[in-house]
Each structure stands twice: as C-alpha cells, then as structure tokens.
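Hi W., the glutamine complex you wanted:
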Amino acid sequence: MVGTPLTIGVLAVQGDFAEHAAMLRRAAVDAHDVGSREVAVREVRTPRDLQDLDGLIVPGGESTTIGKLLVAYGLEAPIRDAARNGLPVWGTCAGMILLARDIVGGEPDGRIGLMDLKVQRNAFGRQLDSFEVDLPFTGLDRPIHAVFIRAPLVERVGPEAEALATLPGGRVVAARQGNLLATAFHPELTPDTRLHAMFIRSCQQAAGRRRRAA
Ligand code: GLN
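Structure:
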C-alpha cells in the first residue's frame, strides 16, 4: 500500500546529521516491510521545519554545542512539546544526552530532558575514547555492530524507560520510553540499516495513530 510519504526530520544544527539522513533514505529502500511508504527526509534548523513531521532524529555531535543552538534557534521548547505529544524522537550519542532527564558530567544549556534516564557524558574516558562491539538489541534478530565515540552511558534507567541494549557486563547503552528512543552509539556510521528501519516503522505507527485520532 502506498500512502502519503512519511516526513522524518534530522536536527541539522551540528554533528553527523548528513549520515543519519543518508541512512534514513537507505533504510526506506532496503527494508521491504517499510518500503510501502516513501520517506522524505527534512533537515531541521528552525521551528517551522518541525511542522508536520512524523519523526525526528537528534544526531551525535557535541551536546553542549547542539544544546546552545537549540536555544539560539528557538527549537528547544517546540521539540520538547512535540515529543510530549507523541512525536517519535531518536537521539544518538549527543542526542541521547539531550533526551535524558539527568546528566552527569556537564549539563547542556538547552535540552529536551524527557527520558527517565541518568546519563554519564564521556563515560569511557581517554583510555577507551572510541571502540566498536557487537551487541544484541531488543527487537532485532541478530546483534548490531555498535560504534562508540566519546560516548555516554546510561547510569540509571528509571521506571518510565526500558533498556534495549547493554554492553557485556550489563551497562546500558540503549533505551526506549514510549515514543522516545536513545542509543549511546552511532548506527548511522555502519552499513546496517535495521535500527533506522525500526525507527521508520515506529514513525509509521505513530502517524497511523494520529490519523485515527483525528
Ligand atoms: N562526547 C559528546 C558529548 O558529550 C558526544 C559524542 C558523540 O555524539 N559522538 O556531547
């Protein structure tokens, strides 16, 4: 069934938004089960760019910088309101930091702050600045290759959220809370489109729910 295209935004003020946009386009083509609806990708820089979105990705980068720009461009409150109203939002790395309610290691000026998570910035220190590991991920049939770059770690998952992936040893690196998804690593830097496809599906379902409620 072909419907109106889904429009998924990628916050494009700093960080690796271009990689996420490319992955969304590839995931929409690759995954047979999401191929039924076209996906239009929109770079988001102003509150107007948030209009009629079906989902939003907050990319990796530098959370302090992204947070400052969220405030400067008047995006902080509109994104928070949209997320509260059910817009699917996925934060990767710096994006995870901006979605978390509690942050250890320096709180950015502007942030969404809705997920019941306590997140430690730059949790792996200088010794282990960047690393890669294969991780089982709830909802995926086989492990995902996870790339960590000066990554955060979830220190505590509150009762409103659930962990989706953990490092060997049990430290949490991905979580969901209703329409909100956070990953400490960078799926946009691998050829594996499955997490982007999963996000597209959740945008599709949320759009269906909104249409039925209208
Ligand atoms: N270390 C960055 C921060 O604290 C996040 C790194 C990333 O997004 N790759 O914001």
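The radius of gyration is 16 Å.

W.
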